[in-house]
Design brief:
This protein has about 200 residues and is α+β, with helices and mostly antiparallel strands. It folds into two domains: about 1-45; about 45-190, FAS1 domain. The chain is built from nine helices and eight strands. The protein is globular and about 45 Å long. It starts with a helix and ends in an 8-residue tail after the last strand.
Length: about 200
């Protein structure tokens, strides 16, 4: 009797162990299938396909809504849609809020096209210059470097506490917030202050 009881207990343990193992295998297979399904359904495109041009990036991002008003009301919408490469120091909405009230509305008025162009040109450099290029130039320049903009204005770039600052001819200073936003036709660096041509 004791042997039979012992045998029954042993058989019972074997059955439970087998069933538990089967459950674990099934759960593992379910997780694997689920993971594979997620991977298979992921819409992964190449880095190149993800890039937009400068005009599109400015249009898409709500942080550039004020800058976008200027771009779309000027020749820069066409320029930033093209294949010519530019480096754009793009003022964020907060930068425009620092200007006197009504400045933005004044700039996008058709009669102030020349003033708008002069201001926009202070934020654009022909070609592509990334953050590392600027840091290298600043270091080689002994702590600062002059950047010649599209309109001929020279901005002074310097570095402080790991951040790059730009200073225009009027002494307005602004920090680059986010750098190296890649576009198909250049690069954008966001800026906390609007640069101005010499008064």
């Amino acid at each position: 009797m004791k042997i039979n009881s012992l045998f029954n207990v042993f058989a019972f343990i074997l059955i439970i162990t087998f069933v538990s193992c089967q459950d674990l295998v099934v759960q593992k297979e379910d997780r694997t299938l689920e993971n594979n399904k997620l991977i298979a359904q992921a819409d992964v495109t190449s880095k190149e396909e993800n890039l937009s041009n400068i005009n599109e990036l400015v249009s898409y991002d709500i942080a550039f809504s004020d800058l976008n008003k200027i771009v779309q009301s000027s020749e820069y919408a066409t320029k930033f849609n093209g294949t010519t490469s530019y480096t754009v120091f793009a003022p964020l909405n907060g930068a425009f809020k620092k200007l006197p009230k009504g400045t933005l509305e004044k700039l996008i008025a058709s009669e102030n096209k020349d003033e708008l162009t002069a201001i926009m040109n202070c934020h654009i450099i022909p070609g592509t210059i990334n953050e590392q290029d600027m840091i290298k130039a600043i270091n080689e320049g002994g702590g600062s470097v002059k950047l010649k903009t599209l309109g001929g204005t020279k901005l002074i770039a310097s570095r402080k506490r790991g951040k790059i600052y730009l200073i225009d001819k009027n002494g307005n200073a602004g920090r680059l917030m986010k750098t190296d936003i890649e576009a198909t036709n250049g690069v954008i660096h966001t800026l906390e202050t609007v640069m101005m041509p010499r008064k």
